[in-house]
Amino acid sequence: MILTLVKALHIAALILWSAGLIALPLVLGKHEAGEEQADYARLRRITNYGYTRIVTPAAVIAVSAGTALIFLREVFVPWMFAKLVAVGLLVALHALIGHTVVQMSERRGDYIPPSPLPLVCAMIATMTGVLLLVLAKPVMPDLTPDWLETPQNNHLPLEATPT
């Protein structure tokens, strides 16, 4: 029962996070040089609220629930580590959007955000990669060296372990 609830929470948060990661760059792309102050302020409030109150909490919940699922299901296989790398890329893209939102706030109309097309394409490609890894669960070679998986029977390089 707990596994089902955590998985449902993870999927719901992922949907919200993914939608926000695609929508925010598109909304930021609506910003134009020389626009009225009222339009600029409205756009800034929308992006700031969306990023801080919706997309970022969804990301935290998605990553937290996903981490819990790894331990609940004991999924310690190479495809999961590849998926975690892709999720790390999503987190980096999330931070890039946050940087753009902050730049818009701090420069008060002087900042023109970059074109949303490359960012949205990177998001969609990364999300597709995550989905393919999760749904296909491909057999990947385990690249972990043997010395990391077997005990070495060595002592700590300390004379006495503090108690």
Considering the chains and any ligands shown, give keywords for the structure.
5 helices, single chain, 163 residues, mainly alpha, elongated
Give a description of the structure.
The chain is mostly helical. Helices cover 73% and strands 0% of the residues. The protein has 5 helices and no strands. It has helices at residues 2-28, 37-73, 78-107, 116-136, 146-149. Helix 1 (2-28) packs antiparallel against helix 4 and helix 3 (78-107) runs antiparallel to helix 4. The two termini are 41 Å apart. The mean pLDDT is 90.
Quick structural overview:
By secondary structure, this protein is mainly α. It has helices at about 1-30, 35-75, 80-105, 115-135, 145-150.
Helix/strand/pairing category: mainly alpha
Low-confidence stretches: none
The dominant shape is elongated
Rg (CA only): 21 Å
Helix content: over 70%
With helices defined by DSSP (H or I, 4 residues minimum), what is the helix count?
Answer: 5
Number of strands: 0
Task: Give the DSSP E fraction (strand runs of 2 or more residues).
Answer: under 5%
Distance between the termini: 41 Å
Largest sheet: none
